[in-house]
Amino acid sequence: MRRLFFLVLTVLAVVYCSGCAGTVDKQNDAAKKQSYVVQDVRGKKMSFESKPQKIISLYVYGDEVLLGLVDHKRIAGLSKWVHDEDLAMGAKEAKDVPQIAESNPEAILALKPDLVLLPDSSKPEQISSLEDVGIKVFVYPAASRLSNIPKTIKAIGGAVGEPEQAEKLIAEMQKKISAVEAKVKKMQPEDRKKGLLFLRFGAIGGKGIIFNDIMTAAGVEDCYEAARHTIADKPGTSRILSKEEVVQANPDYIIIGTWSQGGAYKSGNAQLEELYSDPALATVTAVKKKQAIVIPQGYVNCLSQHAADSVELLHEAVYGK
């Protein structure tokens, strides 16, 4: 009887230990599933045993993408500009990540990051100065047009171990833009409005800049082209239109991107009043009808998933919902 009792105990112990081994194996498998290898825009491959937990981003639009991809507890620091509500559409999202990451190696090392994200527009010496002190740097393709924002999101999503969330962000962005474009397709040509963008230094626009893409998607004609067909027409000259060219462009709407940089420059509303009161612009349709849109400059320059919000806002401001 005693021998049978010990035999039963032995069998139970073996079964229990087998179960423990199975649990450990499952945990190890889960950990392995988190390990991955990515390649940045330089062609440099880097491996991760698990998803990075102390990520630093040093570029405002990379900041916005990162905020949409990961739990904010995984972010060790962001650029200072993402906290500027006139410049960054992700400023509200960033409120629970107050740590500002300075770009020098000493300040970054102090934050003990396991990954630093930099755009390919960064200076090579900045990248190398971080890598030289042992910091893992992933360089991603910085978007310059609406069409290549998904590429930026995919790259950052892969680097932080969140490719599925990256695809979700892209899908949400494209859904918003497609909904606006569907409305635009139903519009009659004569109902389309012309707009002209003004920043603090004057009227600017034309093909090749992000806001031209946003205007096109929103169904607003960028009438910059009416005055300046291509910048190549006047080599060596500024992209800023003269007052005579603004009159020639004759926008239905003036669109002002406002960014005072903490009061260093006049506000968008103050700039608009100057345009309205300028005798040289008295014949411009937007001036005569006082049709203007003043928006934070973040909506103008946005190179993250939030560009879709800019498309929505501009379309609704001009045509209604």
From TrEMBL:
One of its GO terms (biological process) is cellular response to iron ion. Pfam families: Peripla_BP_2. Keywords: Signal. Residues 54-321 form the Fe/B12 periplasmic-binding domain. Residues 1-21 form the signal peptide. Belongs to the bacterial solute-binding protein 8 family. This is Fe/B12 periplasmic-binding domain-containing protein. It comes from Phascolarctobacterium succinatutens.
